[in-house]
Design brief:
The protein is α/β, with parallel strands linked by helices and 329 residues long. Helices cover 30% and strands 24% of the residues. The strands form two sheets. It has an eight-stranded mixed beta sheet, with helices on both faces. The longest helix has 18 residues.
Length: 329
């Protein structure tokens, strides 16, 4: 029996960008993305700003209605655009939550921490009494390293790391199964990032959570993820086990990302070669034909301009989309 808890097939998310009729234009934020996540595991999603990581996460939760594709959650079809099947999200909101990137913007400054965490409990009618509600709020705060003294404070009274803990407590309040972690540590100090990532791991072990962990920093993603997917301009270019993808990347874009990870040992750092990409990321409003990475790839050929590379298995559990893997490796 399959252990696939999250199954995403051919996900597309286009946003209108002006024009009418045949001249109507779209920003192709996510285009034909596929992946699966097993129950209790973490898929890390990495890539440059604007590559579609956040849009992917929000589309799965239908905070954005997807343009195309299919998403199955625990054998339930959340959406299947081609067959016009859309689940009622009220039934699944409790099981799927999100932790937002910016802890300063994602918390209502006029609400106390108790009200912020308790809002979801109220919406889903999870508490049988006021005391039960209070106990649930305090339990969630304690799970994320806060306590009852913090419950009646307002967001502006907390540091960035503490605010993010409140955001995590809010997501946990309804005891979800799946959490989209949308760059949850990028706005935090480096000293706090490790604490928050370790807390995510502890919560996963305690509560059996499944994560889609979106981040820029590959070293953080490697630490927490079972598998890592690399996105470029709306498409998945490589997907593999976290050790495999950091030790034996095959796609030229992934190789460039891996080479940018800082190395603590100065001797090894001097010997390693940084792969610098030339040019800027093309606009998703008018992406390059064929392979979207070809305008910045030194291995690009005429075929890359004409034909979209197939996202295929290159070794056991290791997928990549490139016409010239032999030349790259």
């Amino acid at each position: 029996m399959s252990n696939e808890f999250i199954k995403v097939e051919h996900l597309k998310q286009y946003f209108p960008a002006g024009g009418h009729g045949k001249n109507k234009r779209f920003i192709q934020a996510v285009d034909d993305v596929n992946f699966t996540i097993n129950k209790g595991e973490t898929l890390g999603l990495v890539g440059e700003s604007g590559c579609g990581k956040t849009t992917t996460g929000r589309s799965l939760l239908r905070l954005y209605e997807p343009t195309g594709g299919r998403f199955e959650f625990d054998n339930n079809v959340i959406f299947d655009v081609e067959n016009k099947k859309f689940a009622k999200m009220d039934e699944f909101r409790k099981r799927m939550q999100i932790v937002f990137q910016d802890p300063y913007a994602s918390l209502d400054p006029r609400m106390t921490v108790a009200d912020i965490v308790g809002e979801a409990i109220d919406a889903h009618k999870l508490a049988s009494s006021k005391q039960d509600r209070y106990d649930m709020i305090i339990e969630m705060l304690e799970r994320v390293g806060l306590n009852s003294e913090h419950a009646n404070r307002y967001p502006h009274e907390f540091s960035g790391g503490q605010r993010q803990r409140v955001g995590i407590a809010r997501a946990l309040a309804v005891r979800p199964d799946f959490i989209v972690c949308d760059e949850p540590v990028s706005a935090l100090d480096v000293s706090i990032q490790a604490q928050v990532v370790n807390m995510f791991e502890d919560l996963q072990n305690e509560m059996g959570l499944t994560y889609l962990f979106i981040a820029h920093d590959l070293s953080i993603v490697k630490h927490i993820s079972k598998n890592i997917g690399v996105m470029y301009l709306g498409r998945m270019v490589e997907l593999a086990d976290s050790f495999e993808i950091t030790s034996h990347p095959v796609h030229p874009y992934t190789k460039s990302l891996i080479s940018a990870i800082p190395i603590a040992d100065p001797k090894i750092a001097r010997e390693s070669k940084r792969i610098v990409l030339e040019g800027d990321v093309p606009s998703p409003l008018n992406p390059p034909s064929g392979c979207r990475f070809r305008t910045r790839c030194k291995y690009a050929t005429e075929r890359c301009a004409c034909e979209v590379p197939q996202f295929k298995e290159v070794s056991a559990g290791h997928y990549a989309a490139c016409h010239n893997l032999d030349a790259c490796n």
